[in-house]
Amino acid sequence: MSRGTDCSEFFADVVKNVASPTLEIKKLVYIYLLRYAESEPDLALLSINTIQKALNDQNQVVRAMAIRVMSGIRVPVISQIVALAVKRGVTDMSAYVRKCAALAIPKCYKLDPTTMLQLTEHLSTLLGDKSYYVVGAAVMAFLEMCPDRYDLIHPHYRSLVKMLIDMDEWAQLAVLRLLTGYARKSFPLKKRRRKKVANGDAGFYSDEEAEIESAGKVDMLDPDLELLLAACPPLLQSRNSAVIVAVARVYRHLAPPEYLTKLAGPLASLLRTEVDKQHIALISIVSIALEYPQPFSAFATHFLVHHLDPPHIWRLKLEVLTLIFPFVDTHTKNLILSELEYFAQGYDKELVKEAVRAIGRCAQSETRNAVRCLRVLLRQVESSDETLVAESLTVIRHIIQQKPTAHSKTVIRLAKALDTTTNPTARASIIWLVGEFSGMDDGNNVAADTLRILAKDFPSESDQAKQQIVLLAAKVYAHHLNRIRPSPSGQDDTNGSDSEDEARSHPIALLFSYILLLARYDMSYDLRDRARLYKSLLANPSSTQLATLFLLAPKPTPQAPSPSYGRQDLTLGSAAMVLGKNESIRGYEPLPDWISISRAPSPSLRESAATEGNTSKGTLAAIAIGSGTKGSARSGSPAFGSPAFGSPKFPQLDETRETGPAPSKFNGKVETSLEDFLASDDDSEEEEEEEEEEEETEEEESEEEDDDDDADDEDEEDAKLLGGPK
């Protein structure tokens, strides 16, 4: 069966051994039964009675196996039997059996959805269990059966947070996932205005009121939410990388930005693990760094590209480097730019493109280093690699457009590079840049000369370059017409006609006509259409308003967003965030929005578990008093009437405790309470000790008297021997 062979023909023979007393044989039969019970439901039902008997076995492993097998047999007929088995397992003395019962609840629900109410009660009971691994299994069942029933979590929220550190790693994942959604639905996002005193040096008796200045709004956390955030830092030391990502999800979606500094180190440490874990860690880092890059600036060296990194890893590393670039020190900035320049000259074309684009994003993120980034990119223009040159020119164009007036010399240098540049995309980018600067600095403008040189080899240019040459000719001619356009003041028609003739006979006008003539007979219909469009716009030299709006309108500054831009809105750690989209991912559920203050549940709901615990303790103490068991009173637990046992909700009990209960009579005898009984024991013990001390004192005195008598007798004998008086 483990090799994939169909063993269903032996079903009847194998099931006969379900009553075997040997545990190992019983396990193998259960495994076989789970595998083929759905295909042989009639024969599987024959073993149900034997499995039911195993629920009464003394061995907890056998009882747990019985629950697992009964819930795993997907035969709807036995749904009620499975429900009864789960009910017995919930109240079992063994925590292992209760855990298996918790895991069987979703299976029972799938067999019979009508048992939802009953199973929900069992689930609520298991959520309040004292054993942390039972609670972890109950949370897993909760997420699978009723993930939106947050009302069941209210009384157990604080116990879940306290047990979080003791649970196994997979239960921690389930609890963190549950509490993340619970926090969004239970704790409203509050803001409070931070204030500071401007006149803080005023004297104590000063009549001047201190001026209050607003210092902005800060997040105001709920105490229960702070309890969850305080319980998460130890989990960052987990050996399971999924737990670290789950904690990152909690801090990312629930905590203020200052909590994110705790995540940088643990997430960066995952870059030393396997490639798959590195991928998830880098995606999580990028998602956080898109909004809060500062915490990761101290770990910049962890994101340097290694020669063995696969493409999906070094792409994310380059993205992180560009995001944290404005927040690192000067030495680290130089290191990052050196690394990017090195990879821009590599042999991998994809890595070359990404490195050049990363340099451009670094220049856009911090203008102080734009000059150095531009200098690095201009060196790449002279390379023989056409891919590198084309990508570098595209990035240079974006940098120049950010501040056009400061890069006129750069445009001249690029125009000279047209003699050696052969890549069509690169030539088109340079020609477009020259056209954008055709109206600036008339004395040193090279647009007309560049157009004259390009017109010589127009037929041999690529389609991209031809389109940009025609556009350059139209821009140069439009600027020329704007310079020589007559003033709108009253002048005769003769001067107007002379100015039009002069405009048409100018070398720039002749050059424009020549370019349009070449484009008119080109093979590209798109180019021919463009030529006719520009000719119509500039047909009347005295009216160029429409052509100016069409050709010379100011263009917005281009932005090169991060490749992962948009992922920051997805849930951290989800498959949708890894793939970068949430439309086609089945089962993706975004985090709920923060609940409003008016709809937030009362914090007293989360205190009900503690109240029930105190009530149960009081009940047990009362039972102990009524039974009069001496052992329970000596265990150190406070008695019902003692001051340590408070009863704030019952003032009558306090009054009774102060005045003392009246002795009750039964069969004519005074009934002695447990406290009186213990007090009498203490008094009798003290009396016995005092009697023993008195007896010891009397014995010591009698011994001292005997010693004195012996000494006197010896003195008398000595006196007789000497013949003298005593």
Automatic annotation (TrEMBL):
GO molecular function, one term: clathrin binding
Gene Ontology annotations for the cellular component aspect, listed alphabetically: endomembrane system; membrane coat
Pfam families: Adaptin_N
Protein name: Adaptin N terminal region-domain-containing protein
Places the protein is found: Endomembrane system
Principal cellular location given in the protein's record: membrane
Lineage: Eukaryota, Fungi, Dikarya, Ascomycota, Pezizomycotina
Gene3D superfamilies: Leucine-rich Repeat Variant
Ranges annotated as biased composition (Acidic residues): 678-718
TM regions (residue ranges): none
GO biological process: intracellular protein transport; vesicle-mediated transport
Organism in which the protein naturally occurs: Sphaerosporella brunnea
